């Protein structure tokens, strides 16, 4: 089974007639290889192996788990060039972006290794007369993690690092189009953590459905709202942790810092805009609207596909992006020069959009910003809050009291002031409304993968 799961050739054929997944190079649109998807036998075998590894992994002291996760971080760093190549092959992102994300993943394993050693619980005490009580945080069990294609390795790190640190074996299902770096991580995890502690199941949607229904103890899913709803329905009473995307509003006041537009253009085009927390909907006051559109268009025109950011990940996403842009009722479209090959899309600004425009209501997930006007700050907040998603937002103003007051009024799980996409392992990232339920990053993420046990003893 291990050979089928981890060591299948990037370009190969199925000997048993199983349809092969085609892997597309988003830089050219050409098929770069094939992959045999995991099916029922592989999923069942992986779950059984994780069950076998569960007791031994959970029994390790936090100090020993920290040591082993540190060893995994060292392997990631030692083979950073291999991880960068794997990420670039699957996503097409620039090598510099991939290298930064590989470093972040190594940091995540180290961070959570240490965080698990400092876990807190309600203090032991005499809460009932004649009794002593305390709370233990225990691993939830076998975790199934399903991660998307936009940050293949980084999202694997967000899910796997806290789950492993909390004492759970993990079954990781990467996106169909980007299994490369996850397979490399699995090989290094077996070396650093032991057999069965982290297993990768490459495959398609059917593989994911099989994994969700395989009897794991928790399902951690990062992806689309439709995918999250399907996972929640199939999971039944199994606990789920869901991060389901965003459509981030950006409130820019007339006194915003001078570098606001360059900062937003860079954040929007990072990873070709394929980030759940990327800036998406710029909202400005009426009196500053025309100047804002012009300044943002100029900043976006300086961001070039192929030089500053990569292509969209797959043909389906490119077709969806094109549909949203084509169906938009925007009266003004500002587009930077792009490339005609592969799945590259240019940095784009849409202005003068009608109410309910698809480019505003839907999460575009590409290098695109819309610009909306508001008569007052109250109207701007109402526009910001007018979509189902509530993952991230930002406010831009030199008036810090006003800016901080606006951050209080925005219901997103993460709000920035005069910056965007500024994240650290120490700070929680969570969605509200249709953006999901659960927490990634920070020590709070450990709670996603633990359950409390209250122990009360009568004093004799």
UniProtKB/TrEMBL annotation:
Its EC number is 1.2.1.-. The keyword 4Fe-4S does not apply. Residues 16-455 form the Aldehyde dehydrogenase domain. Gene3D superfamilies: Aldehyde Dehydrogenase, Chain A, domain 1 (3.40.605.10), Aldehyde Dehydrogenase, Chain A, domain 2 (3.40.309.10). Keywords: Oxidoreductase. SUPFAM superfamilies: ALDH-like (SSF53720). GO terms for molecular function: oxidoreductase activity, acting on the aldehyde or oxo group of donors, NAD or NADP as acceptor. The keyword ATP-binding does not apply. The active site is at 243. It is an enzyme of class 1 (oxidoreductase). InterPro entries: Ald_DH/histidinol_DH, Ald_DH_C, Ald_DH_CS_GLU, Ald_DH_N, Aldehyde_DH_dom. It holds the Pfam family Aldedh. Belongs to the aldehyde dehydrogenase family. This is Putative aldehyde dehydrogenase. It comes from Kitasatospora setae (strain ATCC 33774 / DSM 43861 / JCM 3304 / KCC A-0304 / NBRC 14216 / KM-6054).
């Amino acid at each position: 089974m291990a050979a089928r799961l981890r060591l299948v050739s990037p370009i190969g054929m199925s000997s048993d007639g199983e349809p092969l997944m085609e892997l597309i190079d988003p830089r050219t649109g050409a098929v770069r290889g094939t992959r045999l998807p995991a099916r029922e036998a592989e999923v069942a075998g992986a779950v059984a192996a994780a069950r076998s590894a569960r007791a031994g992994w959970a029994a390790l002291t936090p100090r020993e788990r920290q040591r082993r996760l540190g060893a995994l971080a060292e392997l990631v760093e030692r083979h950073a060039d291999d991880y960068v190549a794997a990420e670039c092959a699957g996503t097409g992102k620039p090598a510099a972006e991939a290298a930064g994300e590989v470093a972040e993943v190594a940091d995540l394993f180290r961070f959570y290794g240490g965080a698990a050693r400092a876990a807190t619980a309600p203090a032991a005490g005499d809460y009932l007369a004649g009794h002593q009580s305390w709370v233990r945080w225990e691993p939830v069990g076998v975790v199934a993690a399903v991660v998307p294609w936009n940050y293949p390795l980084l999202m694997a790190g967000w899910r796997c690092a806290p789950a492993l640190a909390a004492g759970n074996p993990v079954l990781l299902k990467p996106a169909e189009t980007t299994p490369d770096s996850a397979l490399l991580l699995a090989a290094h995890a077996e070396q650093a953590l032991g057999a069965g502690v982290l297993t990768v199941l490459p495959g398609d949607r059917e593989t994911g459905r099989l994994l969700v229904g395989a009897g794991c103890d928790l399902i951690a899913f990062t992806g689309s709202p439709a995918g999250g709803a399907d996972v929640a329905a199939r999971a039944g009473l199994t606990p789920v942790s869901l991060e389901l995307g965003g459509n981030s509003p950006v409130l820019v006041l007339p006194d915003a810092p001078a570098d606001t537009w360059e900062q937003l253009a860079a954040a929007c085009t990072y990873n070709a805009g394929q980030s759940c927390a990327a800036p998406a909907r710029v909202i400005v006051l009426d009196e500053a609207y025309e100047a804002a559109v012009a300044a943002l268009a100029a900043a976006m025109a300086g961001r070039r596909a192929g030089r500053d950011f990569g292509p969209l990940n797959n043909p389906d996403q490119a077709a969806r992006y094109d549909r949203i842009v084509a169906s938009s009722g925007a009266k003004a479209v500002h587009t930077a020069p792009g490339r005609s090959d592969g799945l590259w899309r240019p940095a784009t600004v849409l202005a003068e959009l009608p109410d309910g425009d698809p480019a505003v209501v839907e999460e575009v997930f590409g290098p695109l910003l819309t610009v909306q006007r508001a008569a007052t700050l109250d109207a701007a907040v109402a526009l910001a809050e007018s979509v189902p998603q509530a993952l991230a937002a930002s406010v831009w103003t030199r008036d810090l009291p006003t800016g901080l007051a606006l951050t209080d009024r925005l219901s997103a799980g993460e709000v920035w002031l005069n910056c965007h996409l500024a994240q650290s392992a120490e700070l929680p990232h969570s969605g509200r409304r249709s953006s999901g339920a659960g927490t990634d990053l920070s020590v709070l993420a450990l709670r996603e993968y633990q359950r409390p046990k209250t122990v009360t003893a009568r004093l004799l």
